[in-house]
Amino acid sequence: MPKIHIPGMKRGQILGILALLLICAIAVIPAMGANVTTSYPQAPDAATNYYNSAVQLTTSGDNAAASGDNATASKSYLEAIALYDMALNSNTTEIQESDGLLYTYQGKSYAQIQLGNYTGAIDTLNAGLALYPTDEHLWNNKGYAQFKTGDYKDAVTSYNNALANDSNNTLTLVNKGDALVKLGNYQDAVTSYKAALANNPDSNETATKLAAAEKFTSAELPVSLIALVIVVIIAGAGVAYYILKKRPVQQKANEVPVKKAGSKKNKK
């Protein structure tokens, strides 16, 4: 086998150079390999996979509901809720870092609301708010679920918490106005609807709600005046009755009997 010959170099020098090159290769190749392996994207964890599948099913449910296929919509929402639960029951470390955990609570509560499970939605939202107490979407959804159960006062409180973190949330402003109307607080409802229209002036639905609430506020003054007149009349009647009936009887009862002139008592 022919040998490699390098002119001008001795055999010992050649071996030394080869050894040095071998050492460099041993040091460099693992480092290059390490760089290559870490550059590949990591596969999603189980919780992320469950969440992604749940989102797809929720979207399918929305599409089916929009087309009037309520059976398919309900089936999709139920399957989505099951996957959201599987995500929550998995290791949520990775999805929590990317806000996926927050979206899981939002998505699950949304699906529950679509199914009319408002009590279950409130439980889900409370669990989410324990971790994300300033998320306006969780507060809005909670207010909506409370509104649907007839708890209008607490619904307004939830909407206020949502607006404290996003004062220009048009949807929340409209929802708050709806709850205030149910409470008979038409003036504050008008304020809320006007704020919503300022953000979205093209909303005919909000404009209609505003007009209805304004009619009630215009009727509040005459009703209050009539009530005041009635109270005054009743009070006046009571005073007149006291003067005409009660007081003379009381005076008569306090009068000292006067003896008739010339009347004497016989002594025994």
Automatic annotation (TrEMBL):
It comes from the Archaea. TPR repeats lie at residues 136-169, 170-203. Keywords: Membrane, Repeat, TPR repeat, Transmembrane, Transmembrane helix. The keyword Repeat applies. The chain crosses the membrane at residues 223-244. The keyword Transmembrane helix applies. It holds the Pfam family TPR_2. This is TPR repeat-containing protein.
